[in-house]
Amino acid sequence: MYSFIRSILFRFYPESVHHFSMQALRLVCATAPGRALLRALFTVEDKGLQTDFLGLPFRNPVGLAAGFDKNAEYLRELECLGFGFVETGTVTPRPQPGNDKPRVFRLVKDQALINRMGFNNEGVDAVAERLKKWKNHHQTGDTGAYRMIIGGNIGKNKVTPNEEAWKDYEICFNTLHPWVDYFVVNVSSPNTPGLRELQEKESLRKILTQLQALNRQKTVQKPILLKIAPDLSEAQLDDVAALALEIGLDGLVATNTTISREGLSPESEAGSRETGGLSGRPLLKKSTEVLKYLIEKTNGRIPVIASGGIFTGEEAREKMKTGAPLVQVWTGFIYVGPAICKKICRHLLRAAS
Question: Among 52, 122, 44, which residue's Cα sits nearest to residue 80?
């Protein structure tokens, strides 16, 4: 059924389809029967899926990566689709429109996307207000319950010079701190000029140590993770691993999108000339290699969430067998459809039985 719907949706511009689809889902979720129907269709509730990670109780290990619900507009809808966690953002201190359109391109033959969104979002204050309402009205009061965990993916504004980037991350951290369960520092998007330069060891040290110092001042501390690019050299990965161990970082996310176009089919030639980050199936192998390298380099002392190219339960399981406690999907959601979380969770349960 979804393959037929997708064939129609793919005739239209990706951002328009995203907005239309999520608004349609919102209409269904506007009533209690609609929400109950979606949960019955797409949610797998099983204690065997429950995962405790960084002191947080995840109802299952399958999450939605940052970039899908940038402004925390669709948390209720995504909860009904069964996700164990959702990352909002990337959020910046001030609102920004992002790059000029068109800025998202489908490579259907390769089941991939290229995007150069450019951290388009409504700004941290607007996102914090929505997260506050979500926390107050859409979560169970039972503190022991397994609910949908919310991550805050934070970045810097395009106009902020790199030497002052730490200030942007500090603003986002302080504003979102009461309303998210964990943070991911994004310095690896290829779509903000100069951002990836912040992955150099000393630039990272300044940002991360500042956030950790702020975190220690809070009554309740939140885990801080770093999202990295799949295009780093081994020397750069070594620096990331060494810094993570040195400062006691809570975890890493591997990986963001890639600027490489290696391995794409001839049918994708025209689309592959677009600038931006490539996601989807072509990223699977490289992101897994980075995941494995980091886990081996740190001897498993720094947990790594796996993100990149996951479409199936078996692909998720392979990432977890490599050592990832959690996995995130994004482009797979677009190509597989709203049942992707359910399909992955069922596969994980069968594999464990």
Answer: 44
